[in-house]
Amino acid sequence: MTLSPLSGVQILLVEDSAGDVSLTREALRDAKVHNELHVVGDGIEALAYLRGEGQYAGAATPDLVLLDLNLPRKDGREVLEEMKADDHLKRIPVVVLTTSSSESDIYESYQLHANAFVTKPVAYTDFLAAVRQLEGFWLEIVQLPDGKK
């Protein structure tokens, strides 16, 4: 999918920290590419959203998923594994965005077919810069597949 600055990109943020959700919203608010950020707080909600189940029936299929690893009810590793095993979800790029910098978490995420692994910076300005760089790469440079297929 080739994006113009006016086209809408659907982003699903799977994050249980209200502070990180706010920072991500702020970082994407002034994006060059119009985006719509959808947020769920745990892994079970993430899979329901992605599958259009329950309260998420009719939800837009995301063009990109930003996934925390340490989530309540079902962790990010399980979400990633289920996404990449599902023919309808596996094409969606997943960026693991987490506080972990553990080599085992990095390795496992890539083994589960994450498209990128980013450790969340602790400093406010560094966090904003990291999300803006993700936005620039994934929404301006990379060609994403058409979500309608």
Element layout with pairings:
Elements: E1 9-14, H1 18-29, E2 35-40, H2 43-51, E3 64-67, H3 76-85, E4 94-98, H4 103-111, E5 116-119, H5 124-141
Parallel strand pairs: 1-2, 1-3, 3-4, 4-5
Helix pairs in contact: 1-5, 2-3
What does this structure look like?
It is built from five helices and five strands. It is an alpha/beta fold and 149 residues long. The protein has one domain (9-141): Response regulator (Rossmann fold, 3-Layer(aba) Sandwich), CATH 3.40.50.2300. Strands 2-1-3-4-5 form a five-stranded parallel β-sheet, with helices on both faces. The longest helix has 18 residues, at 124-141. The radius of gyration is 14 Å and the shape is globular. It starts with 8 loop residues before the first strand and ends in an 8-residue tail after the last helix.
Q: Features of this protein?
A:
Rossmann fold, five-stranded parallel beta sheet, disordered N terminus
Concise overview:
With 149 residues, the chain is of the alpha/beta class. 39% of the residues lie in helices and 17% in strands.
Major pleated sheet = 5 strands, parallel
Overall strand count: 5
Number of helices: 5
SSE-based structural type: alpha/beta
Tell me, briefly, the overall form: globular
Query: In what order do the strands lie side by side in the largest sheet?
Result: 2-1-3-4-5
Average pLDDT figure: 87
Question: What is the rounded distance between the termini?
Answer: 11 Å
Runs with pLDDT <50, length 5+?
1-7
Order of helices and strands: EHEHEHEHEH
In CATH, the homologous superfamily goes by the name Response regulator
